[in-house]
Amino acid sequence: MTQAAIPYSASSELPSSRPLKTSAVRYAAGFGLIAAVSSVGMPLAVGLLPSRVARIKLTNFLGHVTGKAITYLAGAEPEFTNRERISDAFPAIYVMNHTSTLDLFLAIWLCPTGGCGVTKKEVERIPFLGQLYKLSGHLMLDRGDRAQSVGALTEVAELMKKHRLGCWILPEGTRSHDGVLKPFKSGFVHLAIATKLPVVPVVVHGANRVWPKKGGLHGGKLPIEVLEPIDTTTWKAESSRDHAQMVHELMARALGQTPQEQPAAAPVATA
Fold first, then answer.
1. Contact at 8 Å (CB) between 14 and 221?
2. 145 vs 174, which has greater pLDDT?
3. For residues 126 and 15, what is the distance between their CA atoms, to the nearest angstrom?
């Protein structure tokens, strides 16, 4: 059943202005969970080294468990609008806005099995999770090395076409601390052109208030809106900036923000 969009401002309960008293306990429990799951996942991933696709699907499964658990440990109370579009559109390229550490865990929870994640190289610094990610087969991009990023995106596009995989990307590249949608990098556009897969925008309202960069966890309602899939079969490389801008405008409007012109985007997409 299709539901009406839920603007963040209309959510029944905004996150508290004060951090949860149990923030430290929740952080500790989350870290313990990540360590435990990664300790199980790493030897399994090593055993699956000959198959990148098998490693991606293994870590999709582990991510569904871990991502959901961390989301609730953070005190978030997800409220979904049109969640069924994620599975109905698969395989697709899912693009989500990025304002909080919570987004990483939302992404690995919601990404369908057979969805390749894309993140920045810095994730390898995260204890346990970073080591598992390096073995996972998902895409890790070096923001300072454009040639590496373009080559990696080209490689994963071929993998997606061959094995009917999807992809989950945070196209802003870095988080927006104030919640205002930043300009998009155009890596997702080039993946769409190469694979002809639809683009599915996923709009998260207020993750930066639920889990801010500093000050502990605040918890609260977390509206998550999945917009209609966008057909990309007619997209062209020469108009990649226009395609990125169109998706940006759709997501900005869903966030209740005024769409603004963004500069030409480089063919790189990181999380």
1. yes
2. 174
3. 27
Q: How far apart are CA 73 and CA 69, in angstroms?
A: 6
Q: C-alpha distances in angstroms, 63 versus 60, 73, 157, 163?
A: 5, 15, 22, 20
Helix boundaries (H) for 113-257: 129-136, 146-163, 187-195, 207-210, 240-254
- Distance, in Å, from the CA atom of 216 to the CA atom of 210, rounded to the nearest integer, reads 9
CATH of domain 14-254: 3.40.1130
| The residue type at 44 | L
Output phi, psi for 203, to 5 deg. Answer: -110, 120
- pLDDT tens figures, 173-212: 889 988 899 999 989 999 999 999 999 999 999 999 999 9
Strand pairing of 115-120 and 199-204? unpaired
| Dihedral of the alpha carbons of 122, 126, 132, 133, in degrees to the nearest 10 | -30
From residue 153, alpha-carbon distances to 60, 74, 103, 150, 190 in Å are: 19, 32, 21, 5, 8
Rounded to an integer, what distance in angstroms lies between the CA atom of residue 136 and that of residue 151? 18
pLDDT at 4: 41
Beta bridge partners of residue 140, listed in sequence order:
119
pLDDT digits (tens, 9 = 90+) for 210-234: 999 988 999 999 999 999 999 999 9
Please check whether residue 51 is in contact with residue 244, taking contact to mean a CB–CB distance below 8 angstroms: no
Q: HSE-up of 257 (CA within 13 Å, CB side)?
A: 18
Say which amino acid occupies 171: P
Nearest to 205 by CA among 186, 226, 236: 226
H/E segment holding residue 203: strand 199-204
